[in-house]
Structure formats: C-alpha cells, structure tokens
Amino acid sequence: MSSLFAVCRVPRHPFSFKMSQNDAEVQKQIQHMMAFIDQEAREKADVIDAKAEEEFQIEKGRLVQQQRLKIMEYYERKEKNLELQKKIQQSNMLNQARLKVLKCREDHILALLEEARIRLGEVIQDRSRYAQILKGLLSQGLYQLMEKKVTVRCKENDQQLVKEQIQAAVADYKKATKKECEVTCDKDNFLGENITGGIEMFAFNSKIKVTNTLESRLDLMSRQMLPEIRRIMFGVNPNRKFED
C-alpha cells in the first residue's frame, strides 16, 4: 500500500519554487520603492516646509519692520509736535514776560510825567521865571501865526503878567520880522481850571489857534525826550535799532 502511494506521489515542479522566489523579490523591491518614494516625499515636504518657514520669516520680518517704521514715524511726529508746542509755550511765556516788563516801564514813565505835571505848579510860583517863560511862549506863537492881529487867552490871575510880556514879545517880533502886529489879551475868556499856566493864541476870529500852555509844552517835550528818558531810566536797549 505504501509502495502504491510512493508510486502515485507527484514530484514538485522547479518553476513553482522559482515563482515563489520572484514574488518575494518583487515584494521586497516594492517595499524598497515605497520606502524610497516615502523618503523622497518626506524630503520634499521638508524642503517645502523650510521654504515656507523662510518665506514666513521674511514676510514676518517685513511686516514687523513696516510696523516698526510706522511706530517710529508716529513717535517722531509726536516728539516734533511736543517740541513745537514747547517752543510755542516758551515763546508765549517770553512774550508775556516782555509785555509785563514793557508795561511796568510804561507805568514808571507815566508816573514820572504825572509827577512833572504836578510840579508844574511850582513853575508859576516863581513869577520872575514864569514871566520869561510867558515871553518865550508869546514869541513862539507870534512866529507860528505870522498874523497882523492876534488874541491871547491866559489864566485870569496871569492877565497883568501876560500884558507886560506881550509888549516885549511884540517888540522882538517886529525887530526880527520887520512886520507890524497887534496883540490883545482876551478879557472875557480864560484858560480852564485844569490848566496850570501858559497861553493860547488865536487869529482870524479864532479860526487859527496855537496852544502854548504849560501842559501842552510838557506833552510835546515828553514825546520828544521819550527815548532819552528811557535810556536814563532803563539803560540802552540793545535790541532797538531806531529811536522813537
């Protein structure tokens, strides 16, 4: 029986064994190819990631730099505005200080002139000196008017003194100009109480007037001597190019 089975056993074909070996190699090659493809894909993915990261860092740096420049420009503008406001504030404070100084100086000058007006009353107390002042005022008025008939108005208590000086002033005028002049003293109208002394002269029926009161002369002299008064009281101003 055993010999029968031995006779009937079919021997394995050599091609079948070869096919098994080829399948294993194919599978091995496939696995190798898959591993190669996977490795190549990983490498390309790494390259893509690296490039994307590089581009991201570049873009991020650009945006950061852009924003940094904007922030710097904003604070530069803010700093310039603050500096400008500071300069304007300093200029305003300096101008206010200058105005205060100028006002204080002006107040001192006005106080000085007011004191001078008050002291005008001392001038008329010395009648001899006052008479010479009246003569000078009369002469100056005559030269200004240059008219044949002139009326003089004065303080009521100065009438006699003015009449005396009219004669002397007219004599000097005639001698200097070779012209006749009739001067009369107004007996009906007098200078107001607010006038310390001096005269007013009229011609052409009071159409022409020359004011030579002590107050008017003081005002005229104060305007003419104002630069000198400033120099005496406050010294030379280095910033002033022209005198008033």
Architecture blueprint of SSEs:
Layout: H1 2-8, H2 14-118, H3 120-123, H4 127-145, E1 149-154, H5 159-177, E2 182-185, E3 198-203, E4 208-213, H6 214-234
Parallel strand pairs: 1-2
Antiparallel strand pairs: 1-3, 3-4
Largest sheet: 4 strands, mixed
Instruction: Provide the succession of SSEs.
Output: HHHHEHEEEH
Q: What is the count of β-strands?
A: 4
Kindly name the structural category.
Answer: alpha+beta
- How many individual helices? 6
User: What is the end-to-end distance?
Assistant: 158 Å
**Gyration radius, in Å:** 59 Å
- Which bin fits the share of residues in helices? over 70%
CATH topology type of the largest domain:
hypothetical protein PF0899 fold
- Tell me the fraction of residues in β-strands, as a range: 5-15%
* CATH-level-4 superfamily name of the largest domain: ATP synthase, E subunit, C-terminal
Average of per-residue pLDDT values: 86
CATH architecture descriptor text of the largest domain: 2-Layer Sandwich
Strand numbers in spatial order across the main sheet: 2-1-3-4
Q: What are the low-pLDDT stretches, counting only 5+ consecutive residues below 50? A: 1-10
Describe the structure.
- The chain has 244 residues and is α+β, with helices and mostly antiparallel strands.
- The protein has two domains: 23-118; 126-234, ATP synthase, E subunit, C-terminal (hypothetical protein PF0899 fold).
- Helices cover 72% and strands 9% of the residues.
- It contains six helices and four strands.
- It has helices spanning 2-8, 14-118, 120-123, 127-145, 159-177, 214-234, and strands at 149-154, 182-185, 198-203, 208-213.
- It has a four-stranded mixed sheet.
- Helix 5 links the parallel strand 1 (149-154) and strand 2 (182-185).
- Helix 2 packs across helix 6 (214-234).
- The longest helix has 105 residues, at 14-118.
- The termini are far apart.
- The model is unreliable at 1-10 (pLDDT under 50).
